Amino acid sequence: MTYHPKSDFIAIMQNRGFLADCTDYQGLDDALSKGVVSAYIGYDATAQSLHVGHLMNIMALRWLQKTGHKPITLMGGGTTKVGDPSFRSDERPLLDDAAINGNIDRMQQVFSKCLSYGDGPSDAIMLNNAEWLDDLNYLTFLRDIGRHFSVNRMLSFESVKSRLDREQSLSFLEFNYMILQAYDFLELNRRYGCLLQMGGSDQWGNIVNGIDLTRRVLDHEIYGLTTPLLTTSDGRKMGKSQNGAVWLNGDMLSPYEFWQFWRNTTDADTGKFLKIFTELPVEECDRLGALQGSEINEAKIILANEVTALLHGADAAETAEKTAREVFEQGGAGGDLPTLTLSTEELGDGMSIVQALVKSGLAGSGKEAKRLIAENGARMNDAPLTNAGLMLDANALATPIKLSAGKKRHAMIQLG
User: Fold this and answer.
1) Cβ neighbour number for residue 171 with a 10 Å cutoff
2) DSSP readout, 330-342?
3) What is the pLDDT of residues 46-74, one digit of tens each?
4) From the CA atom positions of the chain, what is the Rg in Å?
5) Homologous superfamily of 254-329 in CATH?
6) Which of 66, 80, 352, 374 has the most neighbouring CB atoms within 10 Å?
7) How many CA atoms lie within 13 A of 400 on its CB side?
């Protein structure tokens, strides 16, 4: 549907491609037009870093703040102990408190770059649902909250149904997750006046549960808004590179590799990603996305620079672009390429070129490295690699070696 919003936030969400669905466009738009609205997104602390798959919703919170409203980043110190079963084929490994809190500390580093935290009306706040979940009394919770949930309805949610249809186990622990997430919304509304939960479209069922629960218990009107699950133009899930997850923490993925991920966006996705992941005007995003031939590459560089500057700073973006231009345009090694430094002990009598490609992250396995060489996709110091049996010894590594996989991925290997 095309809705003509009064509020700046809904207009931006609509025009930039952030909207999948909303429980009540009119009601939410009216609330946003009348005053400051608090909205939250929940993040379970299952890894040491957020990844690119989280970035769309972080940008939604950023736009919420830019339009005068209050973002809440809710860390799942409590719900991480259970694990969200949504659209998963297996149960998440359970983490202890120390691991969960360590992950939350590292995730906060990303949020502080994207949102402004403080005590002002539209300053973001960070909360942890362990605050109200850790001390729940089980019997009281069952009586006061559990009675509002229909198991029949919970079984009908696609996230649960798909698991059961495939006859994959769903533990009672995981089944409780959607009740706890619904309870989060109730508590955020009761304690902080939060009116809106946002999330990916896979969270629709969980969001609706929270709205229903809050209406039943508090008789308050609250709202849900979902963003589309992003796929690339070739149908792949957004956020995966050839080497795995695209992490947002710089110590888990270098700013250069992060920059390269965006620079390697397909032509067809460039305009869409500019609208979602940058703050350039929509008209400029459309203009850049419509460029053809070699000109589209400059649009991809703008995309890479904008997103890298947001997450890692303008200097990191500038250095990454400079390194890339050295590598691609001048054939140089580039001073900021991912670098594998080997000790003399690690090198021993020598390392095969296949091992070097795997250890440097250019191939996921020895089999993939051999295939890369066989298909003329690997290069050493810009010369084709044809011998999969090549050994690198201390003499070969007397000066650093540049390895390449295809035209766009490069790494340095050197002796420490």
Assistant:
1) 12
2) S----TTS-EEEE
3) 899 999 999 999 999 999 999 999 999 99
4) 24
5) Tyrosyl-Transfer RNA Synthetase (1.10.240.10)
6) 80
7) 18
The label of the residue with tokens 């809050």 reads 214
Strands 223-227 and 339-342 come out as unpaired
At 15 the three-state DSSP class reads helix
Q: Say which DSSP state 51 is in.
A: B
Instruction: Tell me the C-alpha distance between 82 and 276, whole Å.
Output: 31
Give burial (CB, 10 Å; 0-12/13-18/19+) of 99.
middle
| Whether 331 contacts 382, CB under 8 Å | yes
CA dihedral 142, 146, 150, 156 (to 10 degrees): -100
Identify the CATH class of 8-227. Answer: alpha beta
Which architecture, in CATH terms, is 339-415?
Answer: Roll (3.10)
Pick the range with the lowest mean pLDDT from 77-86, 224-233, 248-257, 288-297.
77-86
Enumerate the domain spans of the chain.
8-227, 254-329, 339-415
What is this structure's pTM? 0.80
Residue 363 CB neighbours (<10 A): 26
